[in-house]
Every structure is written in C-alpha cells, then in structure tokens.
Write a structure and sequence with these properties.
By secondary structure, this protein is mainly alpha-helical. The chain has four domains: 3-119 and 201-217; 130-198; 244-372, no CATH class; 387-450, no CATH class. Helices cover 56% and strands 4% of the residues. It has helices at residues 13-19, 32-38, 59-67, 78-86, 96-102, 130-142, 148-160, 168-177, 182-195, 199-217, 232-241, 258-266, 269-292, 298-311, 317-326, 331-341, 355-365, 369-385, 400-411, 420-427, 432-450, and strands spanning 3-6, 23-25, 43-46, 71-75, 92-94. Helix 1 (13-19) links the parallel strand 1 (3-6) and strand 2 (23-25). The two termini are 51 Å apart. 34% of the residues are buried.
Amino acid sequence: MTVHLFLGPTLAAADAAEVLDAVILPPAAHGDIYRAVQRGATVIGIVDGYFEGTPAVWHKEILWAMREGVHVFGSASMGALRAVELSPFGMEGIGAVFEAYARAELEDDDEVAVAHAPAAYGYRALSVAMVNIRATLAAAEERGVIRPTTHAALLQIAKRLFYPDRDYARLLSEASAQGSDPGELSALRSFLRERQIDQKRADALAMLRVIKERLAAGLTPKQVRYHFEATIFWDSLRQAAAPLGDPLADPDDGSWTQSALLDEARLHPVAYTLARKGALTRLLSRALSDEQAPRPPGEEVDEAILSFRRARGLLNAEAMEGWLRANGLRAEEFARLMESETQVVGVQRWAAPHISAHLVDQLRLDDLYVGLWTRARDKQRSLEEAGLADPDLATAPLSREGLLRWYVERRGEGLAPRDLSEAALQAGFRDEPMFLRALLREYHYVRLRER
C-alpha cells in the first residue's frame, strides 16, 4: 500500500522518513487529497495544512477518499481538526491534540496554527503553537518551576497573542511587563532551554507509528457506510484538481494543471469570451439539472456522442482516440462530457467562482484546447530557460501603460480599455496584478520567438 503524508512545520520530511516509508508532500490544501488518491495513495496521513491565504483541504474530498477505500489519518495540526470533524465517518485521529479537541477541551483553530517559512526553508516554524505552550507550561507547573497562578496568567497572555506572534521570548516579556514573579520567570526561562514540549511533533510521530503498525498487521481497503453525493461543487473541485493532458508530453506527465492553459486563453479575448459563455451555460445547466431533472437517458448521450463525432470527422476509432489523447481525456471522461452536453439548455444566469474548471471543457469542445495548451507549454519552457518565468516590470523596457498598448495593438481585436484594471476585467483575469504578470510573460515570450 502507498502512504502519502502531508507535512510542514510540525515535522520535517527527513524525520518522518526515518519512521515510515511514504510519499512526503507539502501541507495539504484544497484539492490535494483528491490528487493524492488519483496518484495512487491508499493511506493518507494529514499533519499540516494551509488555512489562511490558501483554501483549506475540503471535508468532502476526505469523505470521497475514504469512499474510494483509502484510509485517512489525522494528527497534530490541520489533521487533528479534520479528524475530529470527520471521525463519525471513519477518519482516524491520533494524539493528544486530537483527543483534546474531541473532548471539547480545545475549540479554537488558532491552538494549532503557526507562522512558518516557505518550502525552500523546509517550512520551519516561526512561532510556537498554543498547544505546545500549554503542554510546556503544564510540565513546568508539575515540576514546581512555576505556581498554578503564574501558569494561569501565562496561558492568558499567550492566548491573547495573535498566533504568528506567539513564542516564549514574547510570552516571558509580556509576563514580566505585567508583574509576574521575576524568580519564577527566570526559572521558567532555564526550564525552556532543555524541557520544551513539542506536542504537535510528538503526535505526528505517533500517527506515523500507528500507520506503520497497521500496515504491518495487514490493512484492507477502507469501507464506509455513508452515501457520497456528487454535486456541482464536487465536480468543480475534481476538474480543477485533476492534471491536464499535455498533447506534446508523455501521457504519464501529470505535473500540469489548468492554470497555465486558462492564462493562455485569457490572453486571447475572443476565444476566452466564447469559452466563458459556454462554460457558464454548462455550469448553470448542471446546477438546474441536479435540482430539477434526472440524468439524461443513455440514448440521448449516445446521440450526443455520435453528433460530436460526425461534426468533427471522428467516425473511425483511430481518429477518435487521437482526439481524446490530444485533448487529455479518457473515454469515460469524454462520455461524462457528452452527458453534460445533453443538459445544456441555454441557461444565462448566475455566475460563480467555480467556472474555471468548466472553461477547460469548453475550450476542448471549441477545438481550442490543443493550440492554446501547446503555446502555453512552449511559453513556460522558453521563459524558464531565459530566467523569465515570473517577470516583473523591471524586466521589460515598457511602462505599465506601454505594455497595455503593445498588447492591444498586437492583438488588434478592438479592445480599448482605459487602464490595466479595466483591461484585466475585460479579459477575465481575477485582478490587475494577475493580468500584468500574464502580459509580461506574453511580452517576453514574443520577444524570445522573434529572436
């Protein structure tokens, strides 16, 4: 069985590897559990996860993973939180932090939150988790280093601090300023040099040992008793998290997702506008169909497939297989795509942030996927080789306004925005910085090709 572990500031990858043979991944975020299962995970251990600035790992993807037969364990940090919430459904929590949440002794998410360095620096913790402070102060009181009243005062001070500001130096400084006994604080300072308790790390290691023991004892696929409901929001996650097929690459290359493709589409406003309208229709049609109509009968889906193949001259098997490969689709995914085609009823209302995943499908149906994806991949490779994969204005001899004029003149598609903000809105980018980055990448790519 293949174990995938989501680790970050709580436990270093090297320390985890000494305990358990596993695929070590960064802190879990929205869509990561789905991707892990797609890549063959049969056991998943969640320790760390993103929660601020990056969408957190979704409960539904954990439920789906367990429905697929995957054992999911959680401890220490985000893993402990999700395990408490999903333990009635079969997720397994390990460790003192999980148990404290399960007994409702802890309730706030900030108890396990820490600030940490980026991946390049090993996600090193830059603050101390409240649960670690609690465990350390409890040990200090038990050993007679501090009195119960001082212990209580220190806990109040630590809890009032914003989680990125929590560390022992700040805690002792605040306690001193508020009149805590200097002798006790001095003794506690000495205690901290040798006897700090890292409860989160201890829990993470305990989870790894449990997984190892369970594997040694023989772990059969997970079995659950709940019904998993596939909604439009689940379909959006599934499509957004799944890697896109690359027409130029090896079929096993799953490292590319839809972000680069959609950036490329947004720089071609006519294509993007058509795709966005079609994708919106598909999304709304699916929403209404889920609520008001049964799934289309098989004959209608078969007719949709036949019509699609006739229109594109794909009536022989070899041509159809070639189209599927070029567009990064398996036969069953294509069948689902055709099923959704029969649900399109011209709905033109209600937009939502989930439209991006449907845009990719619409680009496929408009026969734009291959060209845009080929160009997006070539652009990425060219810019990486030139050291311009993430450019800023300092890398181009143009101002912001000059760059926009260059883009409008080059495209010649009648766009006349007043400024970058308006242009970003017209083009479908989330914000101006996102549009500016895409423009800079386009500018450098064109210059490289011209050379």
